[in-house]
From TrEMBL:
Localization per Swiss-Prot or TrEMBL: Cytoplasm
The species this protein was found in: Sulfitobacter noctilucicola
GO CC terms, sorted: cytosol; ribosome
Similarity comment: Belongs to the methylthiotransferase family. RimO subfamily.
Catalytic reaction list: L-aspartate(89)-[ribosomal protein uS12]-hydrogen + (sulfur carrier)-SH + AH2 + 2 S-adenosyl-L-methionine = 3-methylsulfanyl-L-aspartate(89)-[ribosomal protein uS12]-hydrogen + (sulfur carrier)-H + 5'-deoxyadenosine + L-methionine + A + S-adenosyl-L-homocysteine + 2 H(+)
Residue ranges occupied by any MTTase N-terminal domain in the UniProt entry: 27-137
Binding site for [4Fe-4S] cluster 1: C36, C72, C101
Cofactor binding: number and manner: Binds 2 [4Fe-4S] clusters. One cluster is coordinated with 3 cysteines and an exchangeable S-adenosyl-L-methionine.
GO MF, one annotated term: protein methylthiotransferase activity
Protein name as it appears in the record: Ribosomal protein uS12 methylthiotransferase RimO
InterPro entries according to UniProt: Elp3/MiaA/NifB-like_rSAM, Methylthiotransferase, Methylthiotransferase_N, Methylthiotransferase_N_sf, NA-bd_OB-fold, Ribosomal_uS12_MeSTrfase_RimO, rSAM, rSAM_horseshoe
Keyword DNA damage annotated: no
Amino acid sequence: MSTNPPELRPDLAPRARITDPKRPGQPTIGMVSLGCPKALVDSERILTRLRAEGYGVSPDYSGADAVIVNTCGFLDSAKAESLDAIGEALNENGRVIVTGCLGAEPDYIREHHPKILAVTGPHQYEQVLDAVHSAVPPSPDPFIDLLPAQQVSLTPRHYSYLKISEGCNHKCKFCIIPDMRGRLQSRPAHAVLREAERLVDSGVKELLVISQDTSAYGVDIKHAEDRGHRAHITDLARDLGSLGAWVRLHYVYPYPHVRQLIPLMAEGLVLPYMDIPFQHAHPDVLRRMARPAAAAKTLDEIAAWRDICPDITLRSTFIVGYPGETEAEFQTLLDWLDEAQLDRVGCFQYENVEGARSNALPDHVEPQVKQDRWNRFMEKAQAISEAKLEAKVGSRIDVIVDEIDAEAATCRTKADAPEIDGNLFIDEGFEGVSVGDIVTVEVEEAGEYDLWGRVV
């Protein structure tokens, strides 16, 4: 049993979990999946295609004929982590194919690791398959393989990420994601619904809706209606809510039409939870970021959302130490946080990323100042979190069970996304519950980020 650490990077997905039996003589591929949940979905799609061609999936280096490393290029620290992962795979296995966001910089990767077999960019599934075929030719068993592929999941069976679009039309100066993943490309609504239905039919209890910009879903295809489903986030949320699973929305930009989602949360169709990347609160910092600079108006929106759905949980991420950030601007952020009283908050210190326009901005903040501001920000966020969780003691809430060990059942409330928010632990009387169950608990104790309770 472990409590939720306060320093989780907002660009990381849960650890991939691979359990796949191998038949004699079957070629096998290992997968190291780094980066955000969107990259995890890409890894699942690659492995699903390979499974359909007769490949097995190895959970370790020694059992794999080759290893795919799906990389992240979100921050320089993430790039370094990706390079380390490639190096480890080369040392442990020797036959490595690189894909993902950092794959958009093949020369950079080959400069550090010239022995890799191939490099492909993000969501280039066909090129990855071609590289695998070249390195490890398929050898399907016609009596076992070559059947319609069952979705390979890298998450526990009871929840799954559901990617509704790729790319982004924003031009934030600190971000190179649009350069790596391109402009917004929305999936047809009927295709998203079909995938969601398959997931729920297979036992998934929670759908985590992800994209680069969930609010903008369907803008690029003019909210086209096809086979009775319109490509608009409000319609899609309503359709997903009819499937009977928990539906959690991530990466929601606070456009005016987002208010239409809140009644769906109040009705219980969608979880009363929104993940909104505010990034900062001072208008000048937001302008330097090339983001909408209306923090005061955002406070009004938050108040309106809470009027419609008092139980709504708001999570966000912020950047401290952005180039030019003054002490007064940072204090504005702290004051805004006091007023907004967000439930779940992540924060990271600004880093230069090769290719980002923010690198050229003047007045970069010294590392020790960034660290001090991060400490002060997290101290305030922690105090808000602790007070909000303390207010839940004595209440009865539904939780979903993620893991069970000898010490406790580790669960999440509707206010908690997997591995980025807190947990609720049942450390007594949990013998009758199973992973994936949704049970009602009474909250008995609260910490800074986590809760403890008992089944009722």
